[in-house]
Amino acid sequence: MPRPHIEFIQTQNVDWRTRPDGALEKLLSHDPLSTDATLIVRLPPGIVSGPRTAGEPAFEYFVLDGDAELDGLACARHAYGFVPQGSGSGVISSEHGATLLVFRHALDDPNTLSGRAEAIAIDTARMPWDTSTYDPKLGHLRLARKVLRLGPNDSGRTFLLTGLPHGVPKESHLPTEAHHHCEEAFMLQGEMWAPEGRMRQGAYFFRPPGIVHGPHVSETGFLQIMRSPGSNRVVNQWSDDLQPLPIGAAYAPVVPEGTPAAWLRPLEDAPAY
């Protein structure tokens, strides 16, 4: 069963739950028939978790705040990594505490196995921004990206995406778009307007293939981490019809049946995570 469409929630509204190792987590999205999931994990000071067993799924992590160590490697704010399935690694510790965004892969995904997928550890702050090859229909956002991971066999890309302030075109209407692959994002900083409302820091969405979305504009600029499961390249399929710019749109999330009502509260302010 594929993951359901979420467009979008503010993760500040999701309750923390306690894990057996003492860490806290928020489950944002998951496939109920596999281990494929996205979570926020809060590590308390002094925690040591792991090592992982060979039967645990691969995962990606991004440090939202604090500092941690993975297999003895220091991971500061905005560090990114990928730990393959079957690598026998994955000891996570934090002296002072940290908050991580975690993308957990499906246990039966052959493209995440050690030997086929490489382990990754990146200090993203030291990477240069790439401003090339963006679709001209997104030119008003003045985008730049940092590619963090390309999965084997075109299995998916993880990247940072940023847009400059004043990302509003002179036109009053723009086309919508869709993709043949999934798309997932978490807002790290800034804001973006969508037809479903104003995405603030902590906003999260997951789109299955073929979901029509947009247009999007940003008055303040933004920074988000994104994934495109099922493709190493984001392919935009644009509509012929134009839709009005969504500035001022009321919060109208698209969520699966059974989503807690508390998840759907609009935020007047956006505290971290």
Automatic annotation (TrEMBL):
<protein>
    <recommendedName>
        <fullName>ChrR-like cupin domain-containing protein</fullName>
    </recommendedName>
</protein>
<dbReference type="Pfam" id="PF12973">
    <property type="entry name" value="Cupin_7"/>
</dbReference>
<dbReference type="InterPro" id="IPR014710">
    <property type="entry name" value="RmlC-like_jellyroll"/>
</dbReference>
<dbReference type="InterPro" id="IPR011051">
    <property type="entry name" value="RmlC_Cupin_sf"/>
</dbReference>
<dbReference type="InterPro" id="IPR025979">
    <property type="entry name" value="ChrR-like_cupin_dom"/>
</dbReference>
<feature type="domain" description="ChrR-like cupin">
    <location>
        <begin position="8"/>
        <end position="107"/>
    </location>
</feature>
<feature type="domain" description="ChrR-like cupin">
    <location>
        <begin position="119"/>
        <end position="223"/>
    </location>
</feature>
